[in-house]
Design a protein that fits this description.
With 127 residues, the chain is an all-alpha fold. The chain has helices spanning 2-18, 31-43, 47-61, 65-81, 85-98, 109-124. Helix content is 72%, strand content 0%. Helix 3 runs antiparallel to helix 4. The radius of gyration is 14 Å and the shape is flat.
Length: 127
């Protein structure tokens, strides 16, 4: 899982770097600050910036169940908000599958519930 998470984070960061808006994210920025900055960017529809912060969260703190679930959920939700429904569906399904994996740290239950709700909405939309 760590390799996949690192690969996902690296791919997101590479994608973000290819876009016009690239932010400098200090290497010592704590995870709660990464989340805060990502949420602030999301609130003003700066999704590329938000994805960079969530990518950094996954890259640096993806070994924590809390931060892994937070980052993956929020990235999928940004894609949902951008109407990239097929991508969002894949990401939400991947996150939901993590809840079925035995062993490891338990993931926060709130993201399972939120993911199930968004997937139900995607089903209504025909995805």
């Amino acid at each position: 899982m760590k390799i996949r998470t690192a690969f996902t984070a690296a791919a997101l960061l590479a994608l973000a770097a290819a876009c016009a808006t690239v932010v400098e994210i200090p290497g010592d920025m704590p995870p709660n600050k990464l989340i805060q900055k990502a949420q602030e960017a999301t609130d003003i529809n700066k999704y590329k910036v938000a994805l960079q912060y969530y990518g950094a969260l996954l890259e640096r703190h993806g070994d924590s169940a809390e931060y892994l679930a937070t980052g993956e959920y929020e990235i999928a939700f940004i894609h949902y908000k951008q109407r990239k429904y097929a991508l969002a569906q894949d990401e939400f399904e991947s996150l939901l599958a993590r809840y079925s994996v035995p062993g490891g740290d338990p993931l926060p239950p709130r993201f399972k519930l939120l993911t199930e709700k968004v997937l139900a909405r995607l089903t209504e939309l025909g995805y």
